[in-house]
């Protein structure tokens, strides 16, 4: 791990550093986390490490280790499905509101299409280049863009909790399973419905996309 040199927000930086390590597989399920060691590796005191570990446990990414301390949680399929159930509603609502914004001319159709297609192109390129980290980044970027243009700032805030857990699941699956280019076909269909100012279709496609993602990831984890 790289040491953290920036002074402000050490707890947040420690949290993000550990989150990255968990999501990219550097900290594997079952790995025990020792506060003193983490503090030395990241170049901070124990207090920001304690705060970061508490947040990660709250996210469901850490659990109590046998004996004492914390370890990286095993992937919990039931918890994953619960996150996806909530995301289905959030993403469906975001897509519906975004399409309504275009319908009511609160958003430029051309701008939405251009911005969305830029993200889609980057996502397809990440798959072609077999770049797992970029695949996840662009997937998050696409959905975050829909949250942004929905006009409801609370959607993205609500979705962040679920993304932190699901980002770890996606990373684990993408490192082991075949890359799914159909995801970006689904993203493109959602974008097309938003650009066409069709709230009902946009909502349906967004919800369907999340349900398919949950099914695909469940199957991949059950067979790995």
* CATH superfamily descriptor of the largest domain: GntR ligand-binding domain-like
Portion of residues in helices?
Answer: over 70%
As a whole number of angstroms, the C-alpha radius of gyration is 19 Å
Largest sheet: 3 strands, antiparallel
Specify the overall morphology.
Answer: elongated
Q: Largest beta sheet: what is the strand line-up?
A: 1-3-2
Provide structural commentary:
This protein has 224 residues and is mostly helical. The chain folds into two domains: 10-72, Arc Repressor Mutant, subunit A (Orthogonal Bundle), CATH 1.10.10; 77-223, Up-down Bundle (Four Helix Bundle (Hemerythrin (Met), subunit A)), CATH 1.20.120.530. 73% of the residues lie in helices and 4% in strands. The chain is built from nine helices and three strands, in the order H-E-H-H-E-E-H-H-H-H-H-H. A three-stranded antiparallel β-sheet has the order 1-3-2. A hairpin with a 5-residue loop joins strand 2 (62-64) and strand 3 (70-72). Helix 4 crosses helix 6 (132-150) and helix 5 (109-128) packs antiparallel against helix 6 (132-150).
Describe the structure concisely:
The protein has about 220 residues and is mostly helical.
List the helices and strands and how they pair.
Blueprint: H1 10-23, E1 32-33, H2 35-42, H3 46-58, E2 62-64, E3 70-72, H4 77-103, H5 109-128, H6 132-150, H7 153-176, H8 182-195, H9 199-223
Antiparallel strand pairs: 1-3, 2-3
Helix pairs in contact: 1-3, 2-3, 4-6, 4-7, 4-8, 4-9, 5-6, 5-8, 6-7, 8-9
